[in-house]
Amino acid sequence: MPESLKASEVNSQTDPSVAKQYDSETPKEQQIKDLFEMIDGKKIGMLNTYRSGVGAYLPM
Amino acid sequence: MAVGKRSGLDILFLANAHSRKFSDISQNPEVQVTFQDSKTQDWISISGTVTTTSNTDPRIKDIWSHGVKAWFGDLGDGKHDGGPDDPRVSLIEVKAKYVVYYLTKVGLLGYVKEVGGAALTGKVADTGVLRELDEKDIEQARRME
Question: How many whole angstroms separate alpha carbon B53 and alpha carbon B140?
């Protein structure tokens, strides 16, 4: 369910649209296992490099 | 690019040594690898440092598959054939340093309900979890393989 926004939470540390999204409840081991599964399921990744004078981009 | 191999959270890609990736990397080895799933809205961002190897790296033969040939072409000279011994076939190895990813926890209907409900009520949508892994966590991931 959408979470209510409280005035006391609207600062850079606790703003629920930012801070609450970081998962501090799931153990890191489970977070890593979930990530392994996600990467292995997606197969295709985009490698972004940095080109001097241009910035970050997706090279061919 | 197709992931050649995942080792912990480090990623190996096969790539053409003539591509501009290699000149970019030689000047700045810090890169980002992103994955995105348009169905689930999951995404992954892996930031790290790259090392590249020439065609002599024995790992190329381990991860090369026939599908790779389609992206290299065959010059017909018995050398530049897109095979594992083609001198153009090189390795890009991304050593992860920081990872952030989003894992969606709701299905399509749940997503619509969360986002639509939040937009209507002024609440904040809760569709999944944002997780970040630092170098200590990434080291743990390497030991889990």
Answer: 25
